[in-house]
Design goal:
about 190 residues, alpha+beta, Immunoglobulin-like, 2 domains, seven-stranded antiparallel sheet, two-stranded antiparallel sheet, 9 strands, about 15% helix
């Protein structure tokens, strides 16, 4: 009987050692703990953005927003841009377009406090979107995805009620804190429909 107890004790010790190994490994491979207050599910299924001109521009447009995959997807058109020009578009912290230059919308939406960067890469603001390009008529067709945000619910990453800003220049995706995108030429608030 004694050999069975020794074998059982050895098996228990071996299994205990194996059980702790994956936990240690998984802790060391995680980049950063998830931020408290972040949501993964939207409570609002459809929203819209009415973009009005800012900074003396003639830029305006309309976007729809809807939850999709790991974030919120924006579609629509923006007109009044220079023909064949490239422009940054971002979600900003505040849903306030009252200032003539749209500075009332605050900085980029960045609840995780990360550096500015290109969407789809490891480090970027949740409000960072890919640049839009106007056609020869000065109209940009928007098909942009904001990764890591939701619509509604009031979580830290809730984009509902925040502003979408179109900038005068392209985002270079590297300059801090906002990609050297120039003045704000249009502003609109993300509102439920």
């Amino acid at each position: 009987m004694r050999p069975i107890h020794v074998l059982s004790a050895a098996l228990v010790l071996t299994l205990a050692g194996c059980a702790s190994t994956p936990a240690t490994t998984s802790r060391t491979t995680v980049d950063a703990p998830p931020m408290r207050g972040m949501a993964t599910t939207s409570s609002v299924m459809n929203a819209s953005v009415a973009l009005a001109s800012a900074s003396g521009s003639l830029v305006s447009g309309k976007l729809t927003a809807m939850p999709m995959g790991d974030g919120v997807h924006f579609r629509g058109e923006i007109g009044g841009l220079a023909p064949n020009s490239t422009h940054a578009i971002h979600i900003h912290q505040k849903g306030d377009c009252s200032a003539a230059d749209a500075t009332s919308a605050g900085d980029h939406f960045n609840p995780a406090m990360r550096a500015h960067g290109k969407p789809g890469t490891a480090v970027h603001h949740v409000g960072d979107l890919l640049n839009i390009v106007a056609n020869s008529d000065g109209v940009a067709r928007v098909d942009a995805h904001a990764q890591g945000v939701v619509l509604g619910g009031g979580a830290a990453n809730d984009a509902l009620g925040r502003a979408v800003i179109v900038h005068a220049a392209a985002d270079d995706y590297t300059s801090q804190p906002a990609g050297n995108a120039g003045s704000r030429v249009a502003c609109g608030v993300i509102a439920s429909r």
